[in-house]
Amino acid sequence: MNNLTDAHWFPLTSQGNIYSMTKLCSINGPNKVLVASLKRKIYSCEYHLMPNLHLRPLVKELLFTYIPSGAEIISIDAYNKSDSGDGFVIGITILKASTDTSVERYLNIYTEGAIDGEGDEGSSIEAIAQNCLMVELAYTPYHLYHTILAQQNTPNEVVWLLSGSDYKIHMIREDKLNHSYSESPIEKYFPELHDIHGIAIWINIYHYDNYNWDILSNGMNEDITLNGNETSDCILCSCIADINMDGQNEILLGTYGQEVLIFCFINNTWELIIRKLFDAPVHSICYMDITNDGIKELIVLTQRGVHILQVVIFI
Protein backbone atom coordinates (compact mmCIF):
# COMPACT_ATOMS: atom_id res chain seq x y z
CA MET A 1 0.00 0.00 0.00
CA ASN A 2 1.25 3.49 -0.85
CA ASN A 3 0.52 6.82 0.78
CA LEU A 4 1.29 10.48 0.03
CA THR A 5 2.51 12.62 2.92
CA ASP A 6 2.81 16.41 2.90
CA ALA A 7 6.43 17.52 3.18
CA HIS A 8 5.96 21.24 2.58
CA TRP A 9 3.45 23.82 1.38
CA PHE A 10 3.69 27.47 0.49
CA PRO A 11 0.91 29.86 -0.56
CA LEU A 12 0.65 32.09 -3.61
CA THR A 13 -0.33 35.75 -3.38
CA SER A 14 -2.48 35.33 -6.48
CA GLN A 15 -3.53 32.28 -8.44
CA GLY A 16 -1.73 30.85 -11.43
CA ASN A 17 -3.02 28.56 -14.17
CA ILE A 18 -2.19 25.23 -15.80
CA TYR A 19 0.95 26.77 -17.39
CA SER A 20 2.33 28.38 -14.21
CA MET A 21 4.85 25.78 -12.98
CA THR A 22 8.07 24.42 -14.45
CA LYS A 23 11.01 22.45 -13.11
CA LEU A 24 14.63 23.51 -13.37
CA CYS A 25 17.10 20.64 -13.04
CA SER A 26 20.62 21.51 -11.95
CA ILE A 27 23.90 19.72 -12.64
CA ASN A 28 25.92 21.23 -9.79
CA GLY A 29 23.33 22.45 -7.31
CA PRO A 30 19.85 21.79 -5.96
CA ASN A 31 16.95 21.23 -8.32
CA LYS A 32 14.29 23.93 -8.31
CA VAL A 33 10.67 24.53 -9.15
CA LEU A 34 9.64 27.88 -10.62
CA VAL A 35 6.06 28.98 -9.99
CA ALA A 36 4.40 32.04 -11.49
CA SER A 37 1.21 33.78 -10.44
CA LEU A 38 -0.90 35.87 -12.77
CA LYS A 39 0.01 39.12 -10.98
CA ARG A 40 3.73 39.19 -11.92
CA LYS A 41 5.02 37.22 -8.93
CA ILE A 42 7.50 34.41 -9.67
CA TYR A 43 8.85 32.14 -6.94
CA SER A 44 11.71 29.65 -6.75
CA CYS A 45 11.35 26.66 -4.44
CA GLU A 46 14.27 24.41 -3.49
CA TYR A 47 15.70 22.49 -0.53
CA HIS A 48 19.02 23.10 1.24
CA LEU A 49 20.88 20.53 3.33
CA MET A 50 21.73 22.00 6.74
CA PRO A 51 24.83 21.12 8.85
CA ASN A 52 22.63 18.93 11.08
CA LEU A 53 21.65 16.99 7.90
CA HIS A 54 18.09 18.31 8.03
CA LEU A 55 16.50 19.58 4.82
CA ARG A 56 15.29 23.18 4.89
CA PRO A 57 12.83 24.38 2.23
CA LEU A 58 13.70 27.74 0.70
CA VAL A 59 11.08 29.77 -1.14
CA LYS A 60 12.02 33.16 -2.53
CA GLU A 61 10.55 35.64 -4.95
CA LEU A 62 12.53 36.27 -8.14
CA LEU A 63 12.48 39.74 -9.65
CA PHE A 64 12.44 39.40 -13.44
CA THR A 65 12.97 42.48 -15.58
CA TYR A 66 10.65 43.59 -18.40
CA ILE A 67 7.45 42.44 -16.74
CA PRO A 68 5.67 45.81 -16.47
CA SER A 69 3.11 46.84 -13.91
CA GLY A 70 -0.34 45.65 -14.89
CA ALA A 71 0.95 42.73 -16.94
CA GLU A 72 -0.26 39.16 -16.43
CA ILE A 73 1.96 36.10 -16.71
CA ILE A 74 0.37 33.49 -18.97
CA SER A 75 2.97 30.71 -19.05
CA ILE A 76 6.49 29.82 -17.95
CA ASP A 77 9.00 27.17 -19.04
CA ALA A 78 12.71 26.58 -18.42
CA TYR A 79 15.59 24.28 -19.30
CA ASN A 80 19.28 23.76 -18.67
CA LYS A 81 21.25 24.27 -21.88
CA SER A 82 24.47 22.80 -20.42
CA ASP A 83 25.45 19.15 -20.00
CA SER A 84 28.19 19.95 -17.50
CA GLY A 85 27.07 23.09 -15.65
CA ASP A 86 24.04 25.23 -14.93
CA GLY A 87 23.23 27.24 -18.03
CA PHE A 88 19.59 28.03 -17.36
CA VAL A 89 17.22 29.50 -19.94
CA ILE A 90 13.79 30.70 -18.78
CA GLY A 91 10.87 31.68 -21.00
CA ILE A 92 7.89 33.71 -19.77
CA THR A 93 4.90 34.87 -21.80
CA ILE A 94 3.09 38.01 -20.66
CA LEU A 95 0.02 39.97 -21.66
CA LYS A 96 -0.66 43.64 -20.93
CA ALA A 97 -3.55 45.88 -21.91
CA SER A 98 -2.03 49.12 -23.25
CA THR A 99 -5.36 50.85 -24.03
CA ASP A 100 -9.03 49.98 -23.81
CA THR A 101 -8.83 48.20 -27.17
CA SER A 102 -5.14 47.28 -27.52
CA VAL A 103 -3.24 44.42 -25.89
CA GLU A 104 0.52 43.88 -25.92
CA ARG A 105 1.86 40.32 -25.78
CA TYR A 106 5.47 39.20 -25.41
CA LEU A 107 7.67 36.17 -24.98
CA ASN A 108 10.52 37.12 -22.63
CA ILE A 109 13.58 34.86 -22.74
CA TYR A 110 16.04 35.12 -19.87
CA THR A 111 19.57 33.71 -19.89
CA GLU A 112 22.97 34.88 -18.71
CA GLY A 113 24.48 37.09 -21.40
CA ALA A 114 20.94 37.43 -22.83
CA ILE A 115 21.76 34.84 -25.49
CA ASP A 116 22.60 31.15 -25.45
CA GLY A 117 26.30 30.44 -25.59
CA GLU A 118 27.35 33.61 -23.76
CA GLY A 119 27.97 34.39 -20.14
CA ASP A 120 28.86 32.32 -17.12
CA GLU A 121 27.12 28.95 -16.92
CA GLY A 122 27.29 29.13 -13.14
CA SER A 123 25.29 32.35 -12.91
CA SER A 124 22.55 32.54 -10.33
CA ILE A 125 18.87 32.66 -11.13
CA GLU A 126 18.82 36.25 -9.83
CA ALA A 127 21.46 37.28 -12.39
CA ILE A 128 19.69 35.47 -15.21
CA ALA A 129 16.42 37.25 -14.33
CA GLN A 130 18.07 40.57 -15.22
CA ASN A 131 19.05 39.57 -18.78
CA CYS A 132 16.11 39.50 -21.14
CA LEU A 133 15.41 39.27 -24.85
CA MET A 134 11.84 40.04 -25.92
CA VAL A 135 9.83 38.62 -28.80
CA GLU A 136 6.68 40.58 -29.58
CA LEU A 137 3.68 38.38 -30.31
CA ALA A 138 0.72 39.08 -32.59
CA TYR A 139 -1.47 36.52 -30.81
CA THR A 140 -2.46 35.58 -27.28
CA PRO A 141 -0.01 32.95 -25.97
CA TYR A 142 -1.05 29.72 -24.31
CA HIS A 143 1.32 26.81 -23.62
CA LEU A 144 5.06 27.52 -23.75
CA TYR A 145 7.19 24.41 -24.30
CA HIS A 146 10.79 23.64 -25.23
CA THR A 147 12.04 20.69 -27.23
CA ILE A 148 15.07 19.45 -29.13
CA LEU A 149 15.36 20.16 -32.83
CA ALA A 150 17.23 17.06 -33.95
CA GLN A 151 19.25 17.54 -37.13
CA GLN A 152 21.72 15.29 -38.88
CA ASN A 153 25.43 16.16 -38.69
CA THR A 154 24.79 19.16 -36.41
CA PRO A 155 24.45 19.52 -32.63
CA ASN A 156 20.94 19.33 -31.26
CA GLU A 157 19.27 22.71 -30.91
CA VAL A 158 16.68 23.62 -28.28
CA VAL A 159 13.71 25.60 -29.63
CA TRP A 160 10.60 27.10 -28.08
CA LEU A 161 7.13 25.99 -29.16
CA LEU A 162 4.27 28.33 -28.30
CA SER A 163 0.58 27.72 -28.95
CA GLY A 164 -1.46 30.78 -29.82
CA SER A 165 -4.98 32.09 -30.15
CA ASP A 166 -4.47 32.19 -33.93
CA TYR A 167 -4.89 28.39 -34.12
CA LYS A 168 -1.17 27.89 -34.70
CA ILE A 169 1.85 26.49 -32.90
CA HIS A 170 4.80 28.83 -33.35
CA MET A 171 8.47 27.80 -33.29
CA ILE A 172 10.86 30.38 -31.81
CA ARG A 173 14.55 29.86 -32.57
CA GLU A 174 17.70 31.57 -31.45
CA ASP A 175 19.47 33.77 -34.00
CA LYS A 176 23.03 33.78 -32.66
CA LEU A 177 24.32 36.01 -35.45
CA ASN A 178 21.93 38.83 -34.56
CA HIS A 179 21.80 38.08 -30.83
CA SER A 180 18.04 37.63 -30.84
CA TYR A 181 15.18 35.16 -31.08
CA SER A 182 12.74 35.01 -33.97
CA GLU A 183 10.00 32.81 -35.36
CA SER A 184 10.84 30.12 -37.92
CA PRO A 185 8.52 28.00 -40.10
CA ILE A 186 7.46 24.96 -38.12
CA GLU A 187 6.32 22.71 -40.97
CA LYS A 188 9.85 21.66 -41.98
CA TYR A 189 10.64 20.14 -38.59
CA PHE A 190 7.21 19.41 -37.09
CA PRO A 191 4.79 18.91 -40.02
CA GLU A 192 2.21 17.35 -37.70
CA LEU A 193 1.95 20.67 -35.83
CA HIS A 194 1.59 22.86 -38.91
CA ASP A 195 -2.15 22.86 -39.54
CA ILE A 196 -4.06 22.07 -36.35
CA HIS A 197 -7.36 24.00 -36.91
CA GLY A 198 -7.72 24.98 -33.27
CA ILE A 199 -5.98 26.25 -30.16
CA ALA A 200 -3.43 23.75 -28.83
CA ILE A 201 -4.08 23.67 -25.09
CA TRP A 202 -1.07 21.44 -24.38
CA ILE A 203 2.09 20.28 -26.19
CA ASN A 204 4.28 17.25 -25.44
CA ILE A 205 6.93 15.87 -27.78
CA TYR A 206 8.88 12.65 -27.29
CA HIS A 207 11.80 11.46 -29.43
CA TYR A 208 12.16 7.72 -30.05
CA ASP A 209 14.52 5.55 -32.10
CA ASN A 210 13.09 2.48 -33.85
CA TYR A 211 9.86 2.54 -31.87
CA ASN A 212 6.73 0.83 -33.15
CA TRP A 213 3.63 2.95 -32.67
CA ASP A 214 0.31 1.11 -32.54
CA ILE A 215 -1.40 4.42 -33.26
CA LEU A 216 0.09 4.47 -36.77
CA SER A 217 -1.82 1.33 -37.70
CA ASN A 218 -4.83 1.50 -35.36
CA GLY A 219 -5.47 5.23 -35.24
CA MET A 220 -7.29 6.64 -32.21
CA ASN A 221 -9.80 3.79 -31.93
CA GLU A 222 -8.20 1.78 -29.11
CA ASP A 223 -8.71 4.16 -26.21
CA ILE A 224 -9.07 2.98 -22.61
CA THR A 225 -11.53 4.35 -20.06
CA LEU A 226 -10.08 4.91 -16.59
CA ASN A 227 -12.60 3.44 -14.16
CA GLY A 228 -13.14 5.25 -10.89
CA ASN A 229 -13.09 8.86 -12.06
CA GLU A 230 -16.79 9.02 -12.94
CA THR A 231 -17.53 11.23 -9.93
CA SER A 232 -14.72 13.68 -10.77
CA ASP A 233 -15.22 16.81 -12.81
CA CYS A 234 -12.94 18.59 -15.29
CA ILE A 235 -9.40 17.22 -15.66
CA LEU A 236 -6.92 20.14 -15.68
CA CYS A 237 -3.55 18.35 -15.78
CA SER A 238 -1.87 14.97 -15.94
CA CYS A 239 1.46 13.32 -15.25
CA ILE A 240 2.99 9.92 -16.09
CA ALA A 241 5.41 8.73 -13.40
CA ASP A 242 6.48 5.66 -11.45
CA ILE A 243 5.59 7.11 -8.07
CA ASN A 244 5.51 3.78 -6.20
CA MET A 245 8.90 2.77 -7.65
CA ASP A 246 7.79 -0.64 -8.90
CA GLY A 247 9.26 -0.16 -12.38
CA GLN A 248 5.90 0.62 -13.99
CA ASN A 249 4.45 4.06 -14.62
CA GLU A 250 1.25 5.29 -13.02
CA ILE A 251 -1.22 7.83 -14.43
CA LEU A 252 -1.87 10.93 -12.31
CA LEU A 253 -4.76 13.31 -13.02
CA GLY A 254 -5.42 16.67 -11.37
CA THR A 255 -9.00 17.93 -11.31
CA TYR A 256 -10.87 21.18 -10.86
CA GLY A 257 -12.68 19.35 -8.06
CA GLN A 258 -9.52 19.63 -5.92
CA GLU A 259 -8.35 16.03 -6.31
CA VAL A 260 -5.33 14.13 -7.57
CA LEU A 261 -6.31 10.71 -8.92
CA ILE A 262 -3.62 8.04 -9.27
CA PHE A 263 -4.20 4.99 -11.47
CA CYS A 264 -2.06 1.86 -11.42
CA PHE A 265 -1.98 -0.92 -14.03
CA ILE A 266 -3.07 -4.05 -12.13
CA ASN A 267 -4.21 -7.34 -13.69
CA ASN A 268 -4.31 -5.86 -17.20
CA THR A 269 -6.51 -2.93 -16.20
CA TRP A 270 -6.04 0.58 -14.81
CA GLU A 271 -7.32 0.82 -11.25
CA LEU A 272 -7.77 3.92 -9.11
CA ILE A 273 -5.47 3.36 -6.11
CA ILE A 274 -5.22 6.85 -4.57
CA ARG A 275 -7.67 9.75 -4.46
CA LYS A 276 -6.06 12.68 -2.60
CA LEU A 277 -8.07 15.79 -1.78
CA PHE A 278 -6.59 19.30 -1.80
CA ASP A 279 -7.93 22.69 -0.72
CA ALA A 280 -8.28 24.15 -4.24
CA PRO A 281 -8.42 23.12 -7.92
CA VAL A 282 -5.26 21.32 -9.09
CA HIS A 283 -3.54 23.22 -11.91
CA SER A 284 -0.31 21.31 -12.49
CA ILE A 285 1.62 18.19 -11.41
CA CYS A 286 5.29 17.30 -11.79
CA TYR A 287 7.50 14.53 -10.44
CA MET A 288 11.13 15.35 -9.65
CA ASP A 289 13.84 15.07 -7.00
CA ILE A 290 13.54 18.50 -5.41
CA THR A 291 15.10 17.39 -2.10
CA ASN A 292 18.20 16.07 -3.94
CA ASP A 293 18.25 12.82 -1.96
CA GLY A 294 17.90 10.53 -4.97
CA ILE A 295 14.16 9.98 -4.46
CA LYS A 296 11.62 11.98 -6.43
CA GLU A 297 8.78 13.95 -4.89
CA LEU A 298 5.33 14.79 -6.22
CA ILE A 299 4.82 18.54 -6.64
CA VAL A 300 1.27 19.79 -7.01
CA LEU A 301 0.30 23.35 -7.93
CA THR A 302 -3.19 24.34 -6.84
CA GLN A 303 -5.10 27.58 -7.17
CA ARG A 304 -3.86 28.61 -3.71
CA GLY A 305 -0.31 27.30 -3.46
CA VAL A 306 2.29 24.60 -4.03
CA HIS A 307 2.28 21.23 -2.24
CA ILE A 308 5.38 19.02 -2.05
CA LEU A 309 4.51 15.42 -1.24
CA GLN A 310 6.64 12.39 -0.53
CA VAL A 311 5.57 8.85 -1.34
CA VAL A 312 5.66 6.52 1.66
CA ILE A 313 5.71 2.83 0.76
CA PHE A 314 4.47 0.35 3.33
CA ILE A 315 5.79 -3.18 2.88
TrEMBL record:
InterPro entries: Integrin_alpha_N, Kptn
Signal peptide annotation: none
Protein name: Kaptin
Gene Ontology cellular-component terms listed: actin cytoskeleton; lamellipodium
GO biological process entries: actin filament organization; cellular response to amino acid starvation; negative regulation of TORC1 signaling
GO molecular function annotations of the record: actin filament binding
Protein species of origin: Eufriesea mexicana
